[in-house]
Amino acid sequence: MNNKILFFALVLVAGAVVFFWPSDEKKIRDGLDSLAEYCSSAKEEPVIETLQKAALAAKLCTDPCTVHFESLEIDRAFSQKELTDRFLMMKKRLTDTVFNFHDTAVEIVGDDRAEVLTTLRINGQIVDKQFTDAYEINITVEKQDDGWRFGSFTVVEFMKR
Amino acid sequence: MVPSSSLRRFFLPTLNKRYFIRLALVAFASYLVFGYLFIPLCIQGVSMEPTYRDRTYAFSWRLRYIFAPMERFDVVTVRYSGRRVMLLKRIVALPGETVEFRKGFLYVDGKPIDEPYVHHRAAWELPPRTVAPGHVYVVGDNRGTPMDRHQFGETPMNRIVGGVFP
Fold first, then answer.
1. What confidence tens digit (pLDDT) does each residue in B60-84 have?
2. Which of A5, A14, A85, A106 is most buried as measured by Cβ atoms within 10 A of its Cβ?
3. Of A103, A132, A158, the CB nearest to B155
């Protein structure tokens, strides 16, 4: 009986080690969670917090960072400063909004590069109206001295009018 | 009349090996059924109103198109990068058909299509386009919103996760 308990305890510990081990994939997923948190806005968020979050969100990206969004005719590189401004504009427009990444697949394609396919879901309010939106996004992630940074975002538009 | 001993066994089971095996089997079967075959949906948004209202529930039945082809008017779930977030839409045109909107009315191959499920119509205008092989044309039932704020169009069939129940 004691052997069985010991065996299950060892299996549990091994599982926990594998689950919590700080792999590159886990670091990238943590980066996505941070990006979602910084982009989200609480109702009546203090201005200083909004500014901090916008700057922190931009810092998770490379300088410059490329964005491709065909239907909005966006296809260019954004500097860190531009990204901060864009995040700030977005957060001011989307108050009381929650960003979440779901169904995330991370593929490490080299020592310092990874590809991420994920779904961004946005739930919130825009001009006092409830809205829900979702986008499939292809993200390239680059390993830099201070960790993994998002290098490009491409919105996958699988529904063509 | 259910014997009281059966009721007692049901609500206060003996925690023996057999019970835990049964529990594990039920959990595994639930995971398979509700994770892969009959996926619960929490509907958010108004794009399928009035057929499916905001904050209501339904299921995505994944085996719907294993033995039967997709047909016009089927309500389907369309996946993004996975099955956690999906779009709920109605198929209005099949591969090779030409689809267009004139003053909010749907035309397929130049003929008007009766859509009793559409209650509100904005004056959508969309020039004719032919659905590519391996694709279907999907639209939501709520046509009361401006066209540029409604997500619809031609989507690959491999994006269709399944039918919707009920």
1. 999 999 889 999 999 999 999 999 9
2. A106
3. A158
Q: Is residue A70 part of a domain?
A: yes
- Alpha-carbon distance A2 to A151, whole Å? 52
Chain-centroid distance of CA B57 in Å reads 11
The answer as to whether A35 is a domain residue is: yes
Residue A6 lies in a domain: no
- Determine which of B43, B81, B89, B135 to mutate to test the interface with A (most A C-beta atoms within 10 Å): B81
What was the pLDDT predicted at A23?
87
Q: B37, B30, B29, B89: which is closest to B61 by C-alpha? A: B37
> Where in the sequence is the domain holding A108, given as residue range(s)?
23-160
CATH number for A108: 3.10.450.50
Q: How many domains does chain A have?
A: 1
Q: What is the pTM of this model?
A: 0.86
Strands A147-156 and A61-69: parallel
Residue of chain B whose Cα is closest to the Cα of A137 = B81
pLDDT tens per residue across span A26-63: 999 999 999 999 999 988 889 999 999 999 999 999 99
pLDDT of A121 > 70? The answer is: yes
User: Which residues on chain B are in Cβ contact (under 8 Å) with A119?
Assistant: 80-82, 84-85
**Best interface-test mutation with A: which of B43, B80, B86, B130 has the largest number of A CBs within 10 A?**
B80
pLDDT band at A1 (very low <50, low <70, confident <90, very high): low
